[in-house]
């Protein structure tokens, strides 16, 4: 197994005080609720979530499956679906909405995933699935989704509670993956790759050797735009979400080649382009066309902003996708510390949910 790290480009020299700013003490001073422990725990979470999920069995075997979920929960479904499509040729629909596509019916399996179990959109889509007679599985730490499943005798995967949903990604992903047959070897390999990489990104690793600390220092004061191929699109979206929620900055995820047919013009001609930080997520299994597109786009934006390339490395596609997510998680946490913002609270999302609940 490769032990190399997914590293940003080497040309960066971090500010002299980055090591002091981002050591364990400095992280804990800003990180009041201990988000760092959850970021560290990603490898164990993936393995544990998968073990829990195996208890339900491969419920998605030979079925058309639709995964319904929002935010930090829904992204687990999107990453899994992208991997299953690329590696297994399997179509799994992912819905980040309160409405199900019209084609979902009684032959379908709907997997509702919501860490809190109380997200309005997910619950609405879940009830719609029940009305249509679809088979249903719930994944949550509790809440209304658990009550709905238990009340109707439906399969339910209980995930340990007490975290922010985004910090439970590994548990949610591992548990969800276990519902699809034949995923165990890949998930175990990925968990091992995450262990190896995680040790190289933790706060005790000095800045000069820590890819996440270096990247965080480069992103401070710039707005990241993360590019991925369609397979890496959910990985890019997870980067965006972690930058939004841990570091409290605006960030965007974008998909190539599509972005070359519109967004590229903005890079060429918008005077604001220099305030953005383009990040390209690269994989060794890119097709010839994908490689050409990525290389050409990177070179075209070079004149406006300094592009970062993250070259995912690992023994399998799933290991590369998840270790790239891990690098984004650590980078976002360090950026929060550099910005002196507590990574855990996302008060505005709570306020929005309260308002929607009243409506
Ligand atoms: C908060 C977070 C959010 C939530 C989203 C849906 O950490 O990541 O994106 O995941 O608001 O809530 P849940 O996951 O409870 O269904």
Sequence-ordered SSE layout with sheet pairings:
Layout: H1 18-21, H2 24-30, H3 35-40, H4 42-54, E1 65-68, H5 71-88, E2 92-95, E3 109-113, H6 120-131, E4 135-140, H7 143-151, E5 156-158, H8 169-177, H9 184-198, H10 211-219, E6 223-228, H11 233-245, E7 252-255, H12 263-269, E8 276-282, H13 288-301, E9 308-311, H14 317-339, H15 347-358
Helix pairs in contact: 2-14, 4-8, 4-9, 5-8, 5-11, 9-14, 10-14, 11-14
The protein binds fructose -6-phosphate.
Fructose -6-phosphate binds at residues 70-73, 114-116, 119, 122, 164-166, 245, 346, 349.
Kindly list the characteristics that best describe this protein.
359 residues, 4-stranded parallel sheet, binds fructose -6-phosphate, globular, disordered N terminus, 9 strands, 5-stranded parallel sheet, alpha/beta, single chain
Task: Write up what this structure looks like.
The structure is a single chain. This protein is α/β, with parallel strands linked by helices. Helix content is about 50%, strand content about 10%. It contains 15 helices and 9 strands. Strands 2-1-3-4-5 form a 5-stranded parallel beta sheet, sandwiched between helices. Strands 7-6-8-9 form a 4-stranded parallel beta sheet, with helices on both faces. Helix 5 (about 70-90) packs antiparallel against helix 11 (about 235-245) and helix 11 packs parallel to helix 14 (about 315-340). About 50% of the residues are buried. The site of fructose -6-phosphate has 15 residues, from helix 5.
Structure, briefly:
With 359 residues, this protein is α/β, with parallel strands linked by helices.
């Amino acid at each position: 197994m490769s032990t190399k790290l997914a590293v940003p480009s080497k040309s960066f020299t971090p500010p002299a005080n980055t090591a002091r700013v981002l050591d364990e003490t400095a992280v804990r001073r800003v990180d009041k609720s201990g988000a760092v422990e959850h970021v560290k725990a990603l490898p164990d979470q993936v393995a544990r979530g998968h073990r829990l999920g195996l208890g339900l069995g491969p419920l998605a075997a030979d079925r058309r499956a639709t995964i319904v979920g929002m935010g930090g929960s829904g992204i687990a479904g999107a990453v899994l679906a992208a991997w299953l499509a690329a590696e297994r040729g399997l179509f799994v629909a992912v819905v980040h909405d309160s409405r199900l596509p019209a084609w979902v019916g009684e032959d379908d399996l709907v997997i509702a995933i919501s860490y809190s179990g109380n997200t309005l959109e997910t619950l609405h889509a879940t009830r719609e699935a029940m009305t249509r007679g679809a088979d249903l599985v719930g994944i949550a730490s509790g809440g209304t989704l658990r009550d709905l499943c238990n009340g109707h005798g439906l399969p339910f995967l209980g995930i340990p509670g007490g975290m922010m949903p985004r910090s439970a990604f590994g548990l949610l992903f591992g548990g969800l993956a276990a519902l699809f047959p034949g995923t165990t070897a890949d998930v175990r390999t990925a968990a091992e790759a995450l262990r190896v990489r995680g040790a190289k990104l933790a706060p005790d690793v000095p800045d000069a050797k820590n890819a996440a600390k270096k990247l965080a220092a480069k992103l401070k004061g710039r707005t990241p735009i993360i590019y991925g191929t369609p397979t890496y699109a959910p990985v890019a979206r997870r980067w965006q979400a972690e930058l939004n929620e841990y570091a409290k900055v605006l960030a965007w995820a974008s998909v190539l080649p599509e972005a070359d047919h519109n967004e590229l013009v903005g890079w060429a001609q918008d005077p604001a382009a220099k305030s953005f930080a383009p990040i390209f997520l690269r994989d060794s299994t890119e097709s010839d066309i994908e490689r050409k597109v990525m290389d050409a786009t990177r070179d075209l934006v070079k004149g406006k902003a300094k592009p970062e390339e993250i070259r995912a490395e690992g023994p399998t596609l799933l290991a590369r996708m998840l270790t790239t997510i891990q690098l984004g998680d650590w980078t976002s946490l360090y950026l929060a510390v550099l910005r002196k913002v507590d990574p855990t609270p996302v008060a505005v999302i709570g306020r929005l949910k309260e308002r929607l609940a009243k409506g």
